[in-house]
Structures are given as C-alpha cells and as structure tokens.
Design brief:
The chain is mainly alpha-helical. Among the domains are: about 40 residues; about 100 residues, Serine Threonine Protein Phosphatase 5, Tetratricopeptide repeat, CATH 1.25.40. It contains 20 helices and three strands. β1 and β2 form a beta hairpin.
Length: about 425
C-alpha cells in the first residue's frame, strides 16, 4: 500500500514539474511577442506551483515577472518598484544572459526617467528612480549618490541621511577620470565620455592635445550635507562632528570651512562663525562668498559701515552677486525706520515742520541710494521678484509713476 502511495505522489510531482515548465515557457514566448496579458495569465498559473520550484525555475519566474511589470518602459511607478524587487530575486546563473539584457533595459529606463523628473523639479519621484537603479546595480554607487542628492532637494532629509550613511560607509568618493582634447576648429577644450572616443577624435584630426584628470571627490559634499541635515534635525553635535571629520580629510577645502561656519551660525555661535570666516578670508581674500558672509555678520551686529564695505567687496569680486546687491539695498532701506519714528514723534511747531521736511528728504534720499543696487540685482537675475517689487514700491513713494508701473507689472508677472 505504501509503495502505491509513493508512486502516486511521484506521478503528481512529475506532472507539477511539467506544468511549471509549460507555463514558464508560455510566459517567455508571450513576453517575446509583447502579449503581456497572456504572459500574465501564464505566470499566474506558474506561481501556483512556486513551492516546488527549484532555484533555476524561481529565477526564471522572477525574471519574467520583472519583464512583465516593466512592460518595455510602460510600467507605472508601483509596477517598476515591483519589477526591481523581482529582478533582485533572480540568482541562478542559468538565466544570466537574459537577466543582463533585461537589467540593462530597466536600468537605462530608470536613469533616463529619473533624470527627466529631476530636470522638471520632481525630486521625490526622481529619488525613487535613482534608488531603484542602485538597487539592481549595487556596483554603481553613483546612482545612490544621485538618489541622496535628489532626496535632499525633495526635503526628504531622513531618507537622504540614510543613503549618505551608506555612501560614507562604502568609502564613496565619486572620483572618475575625465578625458579632454582641444577642438581644432573652435580651439576650445572639450570633454569626452570615455578615452576611446577622445582618442578616435585625435586620430581623425578633429582634436589635438589629449589630456585627462580626475574629477573632484564628492566625499566633502556628502559630509557637508550630512552635517546640514543633522543640524536641521537639531542634532548639532553630530553636525559638528561630521564637519570636523570632513575638514580632517580635506584641511585645505575652504568650502568645508564655510559650511562649518554656517552650522555654528545657525547654532547661534556667532564668535566661532566669525573666527572661521576670518580664517578662510586670510587664505582666500578673493572669495566673494567669504566677503558676503562677513557682510552678513556685520549687518547682524548693526555695523552698517563694515557690512556695506564687505558687500561691496563681494560685488567687486563677483559683479553678478545678486544677494549682495539685495542686502546692500536692505542696509540702506533699514535706516528708514529710525527716520519714520522721529517723523511720527514730531509736534506741530514751525521747527518741527522744518525738521519733518528734512527727514522726508533724508528718507527720499535713502530710496534713491537703494535704487541702483536693486536695478543691478535685476540685471544679474531678471526673475528676482523681491527686487522688482521693492523697486515698484520705491518709485511709487518717490512719485515716479512710470517706473512704479513698469516694475509693478514686472513683479506681477514674476509672482504668477
């Protein structure tokens, strides 16, 4: 009796294996033909036998499932997530060729779509696409860097911090070799995607002077962003520790000094902020950003003259420094408050009337002094709503109706 039972189970098992193979073969054929509905039906049938599948069959099943969900790039975001998950379960070397072909198609789609989303400022979805690209190609840590950067722009700070931690632990630097050659026709140096393309261009005579160099490390930026995220979360000690580590690795990187200074500034450590900026300024006196930040310090300390001096230095070093122009105008207009307070406290005597007229002239002069800075800010950034709106208000206050109307229309168009 037992022998008959064993024999019966053997037959059932054999039939199950045949059914698995049949449904998987059908799914593969229908996917090749682009018949996704029929492939889905076959895979659903095959899935009912999943408990008896060996590694090869499970890998084949998950590969077909991933291809089905991908739908040649037509799959939704949810489908793509599932396609990526299924692909990570393909472990058998027996389907390696098919897996690599599908992986490349899926990877190209994820990277292209992720880039398009970031270009359209959809950073949250862009993060998902880049992270999925990393998930199926772990050796390409640059994709994880893209995902972390997109998450920062999406203000998904906790998520970006997790990814930055992985990159840090992996020792990621993002350093790549870059290839250059001079264009014979334009006499300009051009960048090439790889050494082969560069060398071919040189051999054909369109380019000369082939050179190469390593790109800058992205590690300082990662540590900097980690520090800023820690600071955003109120974890100031972790923020400062991250900055100390970054500066130890790159002691000559003044951008790290600036970042640490900004962390101290947000913590209210103004003296340490000033100390770091002065340190950086001594080593790079021609850095416009440093001069601008010194202007911010002076302005916060109500030191108007020094603030103005630093902002003007920043502009001299960078004539398109919009924030320096805006802050200079704000410094000037900030003096209006004391004038208005005095005007409001005057009486009705003849002396008070004369003083009122004097103060009105002083206020009017402040407006006139601020105008050039705001106009320069708009020249450097024609889309600057703040500058246009302030100019509209100033010209309205000084009785210049034509310019008031001009800048009001500009501000209204920028606000839309």
């Amino acid at each position: 009796m037992k022998k008959h039972l064993i024999f019966g189970l053997t037959i059932a098992f054999a039939l199950s294996l045949q059914a698995q193979k049949k449904e998987l073969r059908t799914a593969g054929k229908e996917l090749d033909r682009g018949n996704f509905d029929k492939a889905a039906t076959a895979l659903t049938a095959a899935e009912s036998f999943s408990s008896s599948m060996d590694d090869k069959q499970k890998s084949q099943f998950n590969l077909y499932k991933s291809i089905l969900l991908f739908k040649n790039g037509a799959g939704t975001g949810v489908d793509l997530n599932a396609a990526v998950e299924a692909l990570t379960k393909v472990t058998s070397s027996s389907v390696l060729q098919e897996k690599n072909q599908h992986l490349q198609n899926l990877l190209n789609h994820l990277l292209t779509k992720g880039s398009d989303l970031v270009q359209s400022n959809n950073f949250a979805d862009g993060t998902d696409y880049f992270y999925n690209a990393y998930t199926i190609s772990k050796k390409d840590t640059l994709y994880l860097y893209y995902a972390a950067s997109s998450a920062v722009n999406a203000k998904q700070y906790d998520r970006s911090l997790e990814m930055y931690e992985i990159l840090k632990n992996l020792g990621f630097t993002g350093i790549v070799k870059q290839y250059y050659a001079d264009n014979v026709e334009t006499n300009k140096t051009e960048t090439f995607d790889n050494e082969v393309l560069r060398d071919v261009s040189v051999k054909t005579g369109t380019h000369t002077n082939p050179t190469e160099k390593n790109s800058k490390s992205k590690y300082p930026e990662i540590i900097k962003n980690m520090a800023l995220i820690y600071n955003e979360r109120g974890e100031t000690e972790q923020a400062l520790e991250a900055m100390r580590e970054a500066r130890a690795e790159n002691p000559e990187d003044l951008n790290l000094v600036l970042t640490e200074a900004n962390v101290h500034y947000t913590m209210g450590n103004i003296e340490k902020f000033k100390e770091l900026l002065e340190y950086a300024t001594e080593r790079d006196p021609n850095n416009a950003e440093l001069q601008y930040n010194l202007g911010v310090i002076a302005a916060d300390a109500k030191d108007v003259e020094n603030a103005k001096k630093y902002y003007e230095r920043a502009i001299a070093l960078n004539p398109d420094y919009v924030n320096a122009y805006i802050n200079l105008a704000a410094l000037i207009l900030g003096q209006e408050e004391s004038i208005i307070n005095e005007m409001n406290n005057l009486g009705t005597s003849a002396a008070d009337d004369r003083r009122y007229d004097e103060l009105r002239e002083e206020r009017n002069q402040l407006y006139l002094d601020a105008i050039p800075y705001l106009e320069n800010a708009l020249k450097a950034d024609p889309n600057n709503f703040q500058a246009a709106k302030t100019l509209s208000n100033i010209f309205s206050a000084t009785g210049d109706d034509a310019n008031a109307k001009k800048y009001k229309e500009m501000a209204d168009s920028l606000e839309q």
